[in-house]
Amino acid sequence: MANDDKTRAAAFSQIRQFGDPVLKEVSKPVEIDDELRKLIDRMVIIMDAADGVGLAAPQIGILRQIIVFRLDKDLNVLLNPKITWKSEETIVDAEGCLSLASLAVDVERAKEVKVEGMDLEGNHRVYEQEGIKARILQHEVDHLEGKMVIDRCSREQRKDLMGRLRKMRLPGED
N or C: which end of the chain has fewer CB within 10 A? Predict the structure, then answer.
């Protein structure tokens, strides 16, 4: 196994997969401290090693309102995020998830969103995004509410996805 494959396999070994009950739980708000900073560092390492664009704390088994994500390759951390506005216009597009072994399904999401929360310095942050950036934020906030893309896709897609999940292995599994 190549070193990159080993790194990716190690990352996926820490990411909870569909069926893990923690992914159905609602996360609790956080306060900033040194332990939180260490957790966020760990989340970023896992997200990057797994080639993800976002990761929510429940995906590594921590029921806290923390998301890390990349917009235009810039790293962002948002604590206690809330979607405070969604456009009425929606877009259906393929969406993957690290907790679904990176499989993708079509999900309808608001085209534009406004998400508010706190950064690591305790400052109030507002993200007004559209398109793929809005999709990333909605996806990660969903995880904090115990929802996954499989909860938002059609019945047919869910059935197909379940079949594909049964047949595949995570990176690094033999």
Answer: C
Task: Express each pLDDT in 59-116 by its tens digit.
Answer: 999 999 999 999 988 999 999 999 999 999 999 999 999 999 878 899 999 999 999 9
In whole angstroms, what is the distance from residue 46 CA to residue 110 CA? 27
The upper half-sphere exposure of residue 48, i.e. CA atoms within 13 Å in the direction of its Cβ, equals 11
Is the domain 3-167 a CATH 2.60.40.10 member? no
Q: Which two tokens stand for residue 73?
A: 């390759």
Catalytically active residues are 140
Higher pLDDT, 18 or 174: 18
Q: Which residues in the chain belong to E strands, given as ranges? A: 54-56, 66-71, 74-86, 90-96, 104-110, 112-118, 124-130
Between vectors from CA 105 to CA 137 and to CA 60, what angle results, nearest 5°? 55
Q: Between these two residues, 145 and 153, which has the higher pLDDT value?
A: 145
Residue spans of the domains in the chain: they are: 3-167
pTM: 0.92
